Amino acid sequence: MTAVELDTTAARLEEILAEEEKLRAELQQQVEEFGFTPPRADKSKRLLGTFYQFTLTVGLSTEIKDAEVERIRAVCPDGLFKKRLFKTMTKYKLADGAPRNLRMLFSKAVETKETAPRLRIEKMVDECVTSSP
Q: What per-residue confidence (pLDDT) applies to 86?
């Protein structure tokens, strides 16, 4: 490709990406407004087209603050801390069966944030193609 062809291709790609962003925003708005909550997916909304289904999902990200975990370690017996509350890794992870009485300390150690909505578009069936002989 020549320099002009490269620039033209790059400009076209930028236009396509801008158009995709615009279309995704429109679809997201439609799903938010008219979608239904699928079974066992409380953080999702779904909208069905004839050939495609659109699912909008909002997740949560969890960050465990190491300094707060160290404060919890200072007040917990070692066995409880390592076996029932946290397991030591490069980062701390909440263990299964963490005691409820430590929720207040835990809430200071963990920050949960809602993630940006993700729109998934899946083809449900192949388009019906009719041909005339």
A: 67
